[in-house]
Amino acid sequence: MSPSAFSSANIDLGTGPNDLEPHWMPFTANRQFKNAPRLLVEAKDMHYTSTDGRKILDGTAGMWCVNAGHGRQSIVEAVQRQVATMDYAPGFQMGHPMSFALAAKLASMMPGDLDHVFFTNSGSEAVDTALKIALAYHHATGAATRRILIGRARGYHGVGFGGLSVGGMAPNKRQFGNLLGAVDHLQHTHSLDHNAFSRGQPTWGAHLADELDTLAELHGSHNIAAVIVEPMAGSTGVLIPPAGYLERLREICSRHGILLIFDEVITGFGRLGASFACERFDVIPDIVTCAKGLTNATVPMGGVIVRKGIYDTLINNSDQPIELFHGYTYSGHPLACAAGLATLELYRSEGLFERAGELEAYWEEGAHDLRGAPHVIDVRNMGLVAGIELEPRPNEPTARAFEIFLKCYEDGVLIRTTADTIALSPPLVIERSQIDTIFSTIRHCLEKVA
Ligand code: PXG
């Protein structure tokens, strides 16, 4: 398709010129894309429709976010009703009932005393908010030396300066200088040597959490504010936590008075067969970030959920009427709240988190059947997530996986790739036959590429 060819498709593109050039696309090879665009125009349940009228099976829930499937009627209607009733309400020193209702509902889904919610508009904002809350909490307790933030290699925490700083993906940082200064990183837990083709949690690697003790000694534990990790790292290639690893991180954080933040932007809302990863792993962090599935991606929204003690400390110890100097114009936007309430109700009424848990074994079999297919050097899985790691082409890292992505798209299945790993995360409403289609299409494409 040429850059302007989509103007002939039967869609209303407005009155402007149908030129792809002005839009600077995010995390996209712009030149390459604009020479051969892939444009989607409709979405319903498990499928997208492309501009050329093809149905594409969604193997990635959009980008890990459309957990209940596309175009769900109850969410659509809730947003339509809300936009017609009250489009916007200021969120500073004012409010509207739905943000309170959504916070209460979200808090009721969380384990332990994770029971206060701060709303943002994205995962990146949720992460930066969580890091700021951690710093403000220590400030409120008088532990003003606690300023260092610890992330992890191969961590992805969005693109704000805070999230980028604690993140552990070199290409994301390279163009932006030094970022936050008081930051350190744990090593990641991925090891093909020890854990290739593990099903669910690998058995090797819990001891890697002990590095936090080393960092505490190096920096002085009284200088460390928080540790942030994805309980399961998604964007950097589906890295499942080794059995016992998260428990150990929790124990070490508690021992040193360091706050533990779980970035659950991907793992929240049923992705791992439980409401949140912290429930699945039975490890309760001090702060949880979420976004994506919170509104089934219909309206952008993120959130930070904190334990009662953090909220109480910040509120009660504050020497200023506004206890936390932080917020966004669109924190708790009415449309997002309407979408969020309808989404959480849909998850509940259809039992979608349980459904993900029930499908896990079938999904795991399908994924691990790819062991032995050309180029496959590892398969990892948990909940409705799978990572299929490919041998990189010599001197051409990422090229083979990207070619598979393109071929699958041609064959009607949407997958995502990150470096040389295929990352799959379908909507939780997927049927077994659609699971079969995803894996057989990938196998077929693996057999076609060099
Ligand atoms: N934290 C985590 C763990 C994420 O996965 C963010 C923060 C940032 O969220 P926002 O809403 O600001 O993008 C993310 C986002 C992919 C992919 O294909 C992953 C994300 C976004 C887009 C694509 O792996 N994760």
Structure description:
The chain has 450 residues and is an alpha/beta fold. The protein has 16 helices and 15 strands. It has helices at 30-35, 61-64, 73-85, 97-109, 123-141, 161-166, 170-173, 192-195, 211-219, 245-256, 277-281, 308-316, 334-349, 352-368, 399-410, 432-448; strands at 40-44, 47-50, 55-58, 114-120, 148-152, 183-186, 224-229, 259-263, 287-290, 302-307, 376-382, 385-390, 413-414, 416-418, 421-424. It starts with 29 loop residues before the first helix and ends with a helix. Bound molecules: 3-[O-phosphonopyridoxyl]--amino-benzoic acid. 3-[O-phosphonopyridoxyl]--amino-benzoic acid binds at residues 63-64, 122-124, 127, 156-158, 230, 234-235, 263, 265-266, 291, 416, 418, 423.
Features:
disordered N terminus, binds 3-[O-phosphonopyridoxyl]--amino-benzoic acid, Aspartate Aminotransferase, domain 1, single chain, 7-stranded mixed sheet, Aspartate Aminotransferase, domain 2, alpha/beta, 4-stranded mixed sheet, 450 residues
Quick overview of this protein structure:
The chain is α/β, with parallel strands linked by helices. The chain has 2 domains: 38-68 and 351-448, Aspartate Aminotransferase, domain 1; 75-349, 3-Layer(aba) Sandwich (Aspartate Aminotransferase, domain 2), CATH 3.40.640. The protein contains 16 helices and 15 strands.
